[in-house]
Amino acid sequence: MKKWKDLVDAFIRKYKFNIYVDPDTSSLQAMEKDKKEFIKEYVQRWREAAAHVKPFIVKKEMINLFLNTFKTLYFKYLVRSSAQCFIELVIIVERIEQAIGLGKIVDPTVKKNFTGKIKETKVHNTKDDTKGMPKSK
Q: Which whole-number Å values give the CA distances from 127 to 12, 52, 71, 130, in the listed order?
């Protein structure tokens, strides 16, 4: 009996990749670029996932799916582009990433740290408040 269990375990280990569920177009649209991930890393990860989608994606659909994975900052610039193929779209995304890095495009969701010094000011009471004070003679 132990031999059968060992054989079954060996079979499962060898063919475990068949258990993997292929992604569909909705799982591609749900992908997002990580904040610390470079665009080339994201493109590679997205393309690898897209290669496993069945039925295969048409080029135009691939562009639209990839475009829709970006947040507003990228999306508003990408939507204006006239990229006809996936590579052109990737080049445009790289340019946007460079512009963000150079500060030419500002991400409104990123909070900037205040580096200046806070000036301390004294506040003086301008009212003649004598409540609780001993009366002078």
A: 84, 75, 53, 9
Highest mean pLDDT among 12-16, 63-67, 108-112, 114-118: 63-67
Would you tell me how many other CB atoms lie within 10 Å of the CB of residue 67? 18
Cα gap 31→135, rounded to integer Å: 74
Residue 40 parent element (H or E): helix 39-51
| Half-sphere CA count of 22, side-chain side, radius 13 A | 10
Whether residue 55 has a cis bond before it, omega within 30° of 0: yes
The kind and range of the H/E element at 11 are: helix 2-14
- The secondary structure of residue 19, as a DSSP letter, is G
| Whole-prediction pTM | 0.58
For residue 127, what pLDDT is reported?
A: 60
Residue for token digits 């649209």?
Answer: 29
Sequence length of the chain is 137
